[in-house]
Amino acid sequence: MAEMMTPTAQPSSADPRPRRRRGRWLAVLHTPVGASAGVLLVGVLLLAILAPLFWTHQANAVDTNHVLEGTSSAHWVGTDNLGRDLFFRVLVATRLSIGLALLATAIAVVVGLILGTAPLLVGRRAGRLVTAVVNIAVAFPGLLLALFFAVIFGIGRTGAVLAIGFAGAPTFARLSQTLAAGIAERDFVAAARIAGVNRVRLLLRHVLPNIGEPLVVNATIGAGGALLSFAGLSFLGLGVQAPSYDWGRLLQDGLSGIYLHPAAALAPGVAIVVAGLTFNLFGESVAKGIGLTGTIGRIPLLSAGTDAEQPAAATPDEGIPAQDREEAPNAVLAVENLSVTFPGADGPVRPVRAVSFAVRRGEAVGVVGESGSGKSLTALAVARLIEEPGHVAADRLEFLGTDLLAGTARAHRQLLGTSFAMVFQDPMTSFNPTRRIGHQLAEVARQHQGMTRQQALARAVDRLRAVRVPAAERRVRQYPHEFSGGMRQRAMIGMGLMGDPALIIADEPTTALDVTVQRQVLELLQSIRAADNVALLLISHDVAVVRQVCDRVLVMYAGRIVEDVPAAELSTAARHPYTRALVAAVPDMHVDLNRPLPVIPGRPVDPAHQPVGCPYAPRCPLAGERCIREDPALVADEAGRRVACWHAGEPIPDDWQEKAMARDIIGAGEPS
Ligand SMILES: Nc1ncnc2c1ncn2[C@@H]1O[C@H](COP(=O)(O)OP(=O)(O)OP(=O)(O)O)[C@@H](O)[C@H]1O
Fold first, then answer.
1. CATH value of 322-434+479-665 in 3.40.50.920, 3.40.50.300, 3.40.50.2300, 3.40.190.120
2. Residue 123 burial (CB count, 10 A)
3. Strands (E), 559-656
């Protein structure tokens, strides 16, 4: 089987919609190679359809007066041992040769697709087993597999089709696995999972439409290989049997007299080469035109769900602050000692550690921190979206009083699907590019509220109106690419409102938008919150945004919450040196433009190399001996503000930045 093509970039929502896909395939015909391959392909296919209709009689006419003749004006390629015209026989054999090769390719694609997407459907253990079987099968040479299957399925055209189909399946299985795993990581799949869409529907509606194009391209290339393999099996006497004939069979017949009449063997050989090259060339041209590359990547293992049964993280258990515990009945979300662990090269890596917080009904809580501080993973863990091999553990993870660590995934889906919404960073990837917006919104209502298609679409229109999408009746029929970025983000929020959300988690919802649209989206989130008393967990790099929208701010560093402070007091009452540095790094109207803007010197901690003491100590102006030795616990004061610092609230020297930066520069210049 030919080398497989995988997309250089994952199919983006910018390009894979059906109409433009068609356009891209046609655009390939505008290149010289693509056009030649296209013409050849049409020619071969027409020949396969028409040749038996027009020339079967000439091909089968026995003429014992002219047996085994060479080329002549009457018989361009000569005759066989019954005097039948070989030229017409080669033409007529096109249908069987091409038809059987295409059938074998179809079997390879279907079986490969089933094997490749099985890990998405059958759960972790069975999925691993399927993947292992595919890996072993891929390691076998294709021809060996084909011969093996040919013996199993028996001699003849059916056996040969099955043999070549099954021999090609592992390659397509691997390709499907790679593509499906890439799609499964996309935001719109996460959104569908939050909406409670079951695995089969997820596969049929969201994954398959997005992996179809590369599969078809590879199948086209694969058809060339299948043609060659089929000719090989027929040549060996394992494929098509007399009186039927394909090119392989004609090649075998012609080979016995090759020294006397070489054309008898050459003609079917040329036909095999030309047709094989045609499929290959066309597939390669399309692949090049639509941006597929020739190497197959490592197969990401994908399995469902997180495993909550493992023991909790061995990091300090801070617990929910007293005032949050007391108000637990009013808490929409209660998280206690949450950790997320991944396997690493040198042992488990824990990018989220001992995170505890609660969000009350109608409250807006911001989560800030530098890149890699664990903000998104915390949100994904809450939404039960961490995939294996990631592992979530917590002493408590409750949403609307329901323990998300107990009970079935189905029950969680139902609860999260109706009462929880997640808005992702990139509105480009939040929707399935191959489905109309209205259908994607309606899916939630049909899944959880038992609405009919019509009712669900009517609700989608209503929800789009609620998020101020103009001409909502028309917009529901459009594809995501027909929406602007801001409108797509609003539609995503509208999707969250299809149920009756008590909590919206918005992970950097405005980062990918321009400033004006940012403001509109933030205002929309605020108005929804105010109108329906919906709680909001807003994750952002942007301290200014969080300060503007939220009641309370959780500051994360190295996978932990290091401070929990009212948003209004962020500038005045923050006590952790990291929070103060984050606030100082936000320029305001009074900033002195003659001085460099404040930055936080040094680099964030690599989760794989957590220090023993306070992880911020190497960058901290207040760090002392104890900070290097002991990691401070997150401690609440009487007012409920929490901070994890041995020197919380101590004054920071004016010149700390200059000193720290000088230390950094000198450090960077020193040989290691
Ligand atoms: N699947 C994963 N496997 C291993 N490590 C991961 C995985 N996902 C995230 N991490 C690591 O966990 C850490 C926290 O990631 P996370 O995405 O939560 O950070 P973040 O604060 O949201 O950053 P950003 O603002 O850039 O999104 C990072 O160091 C990241 O490399």
1. 3.40.50.300
2. 14
3. 560-566, 635-636, 642-643
CATH class of domain segment(s) 41-293 = mainly alpha
Which of 339, 375, 543 maximizes ligand 1 atoms within 8 Å of its Cβ, making it the mutation to test the pocket?
Answer: 375
- Cβ burial 418-430 (10 Å sphere, 16+ → b, else e): bbbbbbbbbbbbb
Ligand 1 pocket residues where CB is under 6 Å: 342, 351, 369, 371-377, 390, 541, 607
pLDDT tens, residue by residue, 359-379: 998 899 999 999 889 999 999
The answer for residues whose C-beta is within 8 angstroms of residue 513's C-beta and 6 or more apart is 427, 485, 486, 489, 521
For the CA atoms of the chain, what is the radius of gyration?
Answer: 32
Max mean pLDDT among 87-101, 375-389, 617-631 falls in 87-101
- ipTM of the prediction: 0.96
Top mutation candidate among 342, 377, 539, 555 for ligand 1, by most atoms within 8 Å of CB = 377
Average pLDDT over residues 556-580: 92
CA atoms of 245 and 241, how far apart (whole Å): 7
Could you give the CA distance from residue 60 to residue 547 in angstroms, rounded to a whole number? Answer: 85
Ligand 1 geometric centre to CA of 426 (Å): 16
Q: Residue of the nearest CA to atom 12 in ligand 1?
A: 351
CA atoms lying within 13 Å on the CB side of residue 605: 27
Tell me the pLDDT tens digit for each residue of 213-249: 888 888 988 898 899 988 999 988 888 998 999 999 9
Per residue in 82-134, pLDDT (tens digit) is 899 999 999 999 999 999 999 999 999 999 999 988 888 887 778 888 888 88
CA 313 to chain centroid: 29
Q: How far apart are CA 338 and CA 387, in angstroms?
A: 16
Average pLDDT (168-195) is 81
**Ligand 1, atom 10: closest residue by C-alpha:** 351
Ligand 1 centroid to Cα of residue 375, in Å, is: 8
Q: Where are the alpha helices (DSSP H) in 296-408?
A: 322-326, 375-382
Is the separation of the CB atoms in 301 and 388 below 8 Å?
yes
- How far does Cα 641 stand from its chain's mean position? 39
User: In the beta sheet, which residues pair with residue 365?
Assistant: 537, 552
Give the residue extent of every domain in the chain.
41-293, 322-434+479-665
| CA distance to 4, 278, 279, 288, per residue, from 283 (Å) | 11, 8, 6, 9
